[in-house]
Amino acid sequence: MNPFSLSGILIGISSFFLGIFIFWKSQHNKVNRIWSIFCFFVAIFGFGSFAVGSTLDPDKGLFWWKIAYIGIIFIPVLYYHFVSAFLQLKSKIFLYLLYLYGFFFLIIEWSHYANLFFGPENITLFFNSLFFVYPPTPLFMFFVVSWFGIIVYSHVLLYDYFKNSLGIRREQIKYFFIATATGFAGGSTCFLPCFGINFYPYFNFAVPLYPAIITYAIVVHRLMDIKMVMRRYSVY
Question: What gap in Å lies between CA 9 and CA 99, rounded to an integer?
């Protein structure tokens, strides 16, 4: 198992169980349901990237990247959806457009037009152990730019709200911002080989930090309004 596949399985397991836990504790809360779904799509990326790092067959590598991209495509969409629900934003048009954006790329990558996204034979071995989509197609470059744009915009919204917040709400936003900024900063390094940059995605290990930070905030600060019952045991 190479470092990339190890980071992938850590992402998959931690995100999946965080999503299950939050859904189980507060399934009737809309904001928390969205966050749970977000976690599940991060888990898809994690398990897919684990499989990518576990094969030296280019066809299997491309297949597992397609699985991973199911998660990658919808991660920014669901993150914005979570932010808009958490901040109680009223505009729905942009959210609908983002879901159209997500389904457009999902359909493209699994259709006969997948070459427009991944290229006809654009799967290249890097570091003697990992396949990446390279060189990028124009549509792929548009996707990456828009992916970053949605993520940055969502964090700007969160930060602007944070500056004007007080008390527990401010603490909640702080932990969400730190957790997701850390995860996105680490996970986004997976795009670098797609542009011919020989930088091993070790920072993918930063992605599992977001479930750890969120879990800490749930226990200590009642993040997402989840109350953990802590029992104190005494030894006589």
Answer: 27
The DSSP bridge partners found for residue 131 are 125
Q: Which CATH superfamily is domain 3-225 in?
A: Rhodopsin 7-helix transmembrane proteins (1.20.1070.10)
Instruction: Collapse the DSSP code of 123 into the 3-class scheme (helix H, G, I; strand E, B; otherwise coil) and give the result.
Output: strand
The amino acid at residue 48 is: G
DSSP state of 135: S
Q: H helices within 53-137, ranges in order? A: 58-86, 93-109, 114-118
DSSP state of 192: G
pTM confidence score: 0.90
Give the list of residues 6+ apart from residue 55 with CB closer than 8 angstroms, or none.
Answer: 61, 64, 131
Residue 133, phi then psi, degrees to nearest 5? -75, 110
Dihedrals phi, psi of 78, to nearest 5 degrees: -70, -30
Give the pLDDT means over successive 10-residue stretches in the chain (236 positions).
94 95 83 93 97 92 94 97 91 94 96 86 82 90 98 96 86 90 95 93 95 81 56 36
Angstrom distance (rounded) from CA 75 to CA 45: 9
Q: Where are the domains of the chain?
A: 3-225
Q: What is the pLDDT of residue 233?
A: 35
